[in-house]
Design brief:
Helix content is about 35%, strand content about 15%. It has about 220 residues and is of the alpha/beta class. Helix 2 (about 50-60) runs parallel beside helix 3 and helix 3 runs parallel beside helix 4. The N and C termini lie far apart (about 45 Å). The structure holds flavin mononucleotide (FMN). Flavin mononucleotide binds near residues 4 and 160.
Length: about 220
Amino acid sequence: MACIRPIYGGAVNAVGLTNPGIDQWCKEIAPKIDFRKYYLVGSILGEPEELKEMAIMLNDFNLRALEINASCPNDEGDILTNTKRVIESCESAKVNSRHPIILKLSVVHDVKTIIKEVKGIVEALSINSVPWDVIFPNRKSPLAKLGGGGVSGKIVQSFTWRLVRQITDITDIPVIGPSVWDFGDMERIRMMGAKAVSFGSVFLKYPWRPTLFVKKEKN
Ligand SMILES: Cc1cc2nc3c(=O)[nH]c(=O)nc-3n(C[C@H](O)[C@H](O)[C@H](O)COP(=O)(O)O)c2cc1C
């Protein structure tokens, strides 16, 4: 069961990776997309063999990049704690994909080790939502039945932005900074060393803000 709950200054979700599956996406959805008009990044998670298969399937489409989602807090596997698996996932994607690889990290990863090993393999790093227990170790999640969920938005800025700074301190792999909530956040994230920003749960609370912010910045 997928679920989203608004919390003050953000959201907690246990949507996980619910979608019709890559076969259906490749057969029915992708052929209807104009990839020259819409710039898309594919995002995949799986065992190494599955990743290989998916990376090859997605070679048929002109994606801007292929993201390895190594950080979904709602995944039942060990991707948040298995450093070797994260690194092998990137290696598998690199060998089998024609697209630039983005690695999506979590604040709970062994970031130092991972970054050392993926240098030259991934083109950029992005950052996922934060497991509920990390933010609220003593408070029950409204999505406790679904494992607690991932927290995102303004409320996690101190966690996700600390990771931005930690990454930019140790590598020149470009970082895409998350948790934009207010207009000034984009500049704040860049000042921390991020080369780009991403809009996530701000869309849930203020769906107009990302477009407004981008337009405002252009003017
Ligand atoms: C409702 C919802 C669903 C999400 N689903 C996914 C997902 O399927 N895969 C993923 O990698 N991240 C997922 N995320 C995480 C976001 O992509 C983003 O990394 C995270 O929310 C942190 O950014 P933010 O603080 O700007 O929201 C989801 C977030 C929300 C709020």
